[in-house]
């Protein structure tokens, strides 16, 4: 594995041979945790807020469409800025625009239901700027021997954010009643985004001159016969199919089943606690040698945990589904995330094109999310019964198995020869 060029990582944070994480990695995790807390405080309840105002499944779908589409466009266009200028400004702009999004929802109140697509586009733009810069910086400050550890810690911290913040939000919304609770949590999100913005200035300025941004580089990888990015891209698309529906639908279904924001908060508290433990354990035990079997087990179980919902869609079966998902998702997410960034860092040439390849990764996720969302937008106008929604969840929920299938050749290559079947 070729080491990343010195300009791509801060001098004071070179990785130890045994996978230690430097202070810049810790700082990036802190910024990400704050971003996650701010997003979880309000983001979990945005679909619920829109639903309560409109009683429309389609509005939630159109909001997600605007979010995914403009998020992908932002990734593609901002890639030039991130590569050729200071990428930290993109990260900070993403934080600021996230704050603007929640401020706009706060100001619009119930009128937000009439601006589903524009609000989704604003949210997508914010997420595009933030995640593009975050992924580039993450790549620069990690290496193959500590990438699973970083992803495990990121998942663990994300779980703490998803555990505490929505629980507090649900409690506040239920206690204050009406719109006052929503106004308070949107305001709290703005404050936490502000703290994340300030903390980001302690991240080292990361500017390099690896050449101009190549707009068509990713497309050329996919057009080249035998290029490993063809299989990797297909695996990423499969990941996106599941995310395209589950990112917004699960919380909404929990609320519709219970009509109680506090129960949605309790749901996220319980499932995120399980995810916290699972991410910690998997991040500690996972390594390139056992990624293949771990990912296969994770993908199978992510499909099986949906089965209780065929019996009945209730809080208890949703909780069974949520706990199962939290338990097995790290087995899937950590290997695919680590392996795609290992592929980006496989040679000096690909390291120099990391921005273009990260944009290609996001293009795969967006394509998959739009495929999953298209199924939602086509099915729900025809039939939005609980059984139809569960079949939709099952259909997109088994997509990760295809992701493992496309990725298995990469994962098997990392196993010791004696352990391969």
Automatic annotation (TrEMBL):
Coiled coil feature spans: none
Organism: Paenibacillus radicis
GO (cellular component) term, any one: plasma membrane
Gene: yqgE
Record GO terms (molecular function): transmembrane transporter activity
Classification via Gene3D superfamilies: MFS general substrate transporter like domains
Keywords: Membrane, Transmembrane, Transmembrane helix
Bilayer-crossing regions: 56-78, 90-109, 115-138, 150-169, 181-204, 233-258, 264-282, 294-311, 317-337, 358-382, 388-407
Name of this protein: MFS transporter
């Amino acid at each position: 594995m070729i080491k990343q060029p010195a300009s791509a990582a801060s001098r004071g944070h070179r990785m130890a041979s045994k996978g230690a994480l430097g202070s810049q990695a810790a700082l990036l995790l802190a910024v990400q945790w704050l971003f996650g807390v701010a997003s979880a405080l309000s983001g979990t309840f945005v679909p619920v807020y829109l639903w309560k105002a409109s009683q429309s499944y389609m509005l939630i779908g159109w909001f997600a469409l605007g979010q995914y589409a403009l998020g992908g466009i932002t990734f593609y266009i901002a890639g030039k800025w991130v590569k050729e200028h200071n990428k930290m400004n993109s990260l900070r702009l993403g934080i600021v625009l996230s704050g603007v999004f929640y401020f706009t929802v706060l100001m619009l109140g119930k009128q937000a239901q009439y601006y589903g697509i524009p609000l989704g586009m604003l949210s997508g733009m914010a997420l595009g700027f933030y995640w593009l810069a975050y992924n580039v910086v993450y790549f620069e400050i990690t290496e193959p021997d500590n990438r699973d550890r970083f992803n495990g810690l990121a998942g663990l911290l994300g779980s703490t954010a998803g555990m505490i913040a929505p629980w507090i939000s649900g409690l506040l919304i239920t206690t204050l009643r009406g719109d006052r609770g929503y106004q308070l949590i949107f305001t709290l999100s703005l404050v936490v985004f502000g703290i994340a913005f300030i903390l980001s200035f302690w991240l080292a300025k990361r500017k390099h001159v690896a050449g101009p941004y190549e707009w068509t580089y990713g497309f050329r990888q996919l057009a080249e016969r035998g290029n490993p990015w063809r299989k990797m891209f297909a695996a990423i698309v499969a990941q996106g199919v599941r995310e395209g529906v589950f990112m917004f639908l699960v919380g909404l279904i929990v609320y519709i089943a219970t009509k109680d924001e506090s129960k949605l908060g309790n749901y996220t508290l319980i499932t995120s606690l399980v995810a916290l433990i699972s991410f910690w354990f998997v991040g500690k035990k996972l390594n390139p040698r056992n990624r293949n079997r771990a990912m296969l087990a994770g993908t199978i179980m992510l499909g099986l945990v949906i089965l209780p919902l065929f019996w009945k869609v209730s809080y208890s079966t949703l909780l069974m589904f949520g706990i199962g998902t939290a338990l097995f998702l790290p087995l899937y997410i950590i290997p695919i995330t680590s392996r795609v960034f290992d592929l980006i860092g496989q040679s000096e040439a690909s390291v120099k094109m990391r921005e273009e390849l990260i944009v290609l990764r996001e293009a795969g996720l967006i394509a998959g999310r739009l495929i999953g969302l298209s199924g939602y937008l086509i099915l729900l106008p025809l039939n939005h019964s609980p059984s139809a929604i569960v079949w939709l969840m099952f259909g997109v929920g088994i997509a990760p198995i295809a992701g493992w299938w496309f990725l298995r050749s990469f994962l098997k290559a990392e196993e010791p020869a004696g352990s391969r079947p």
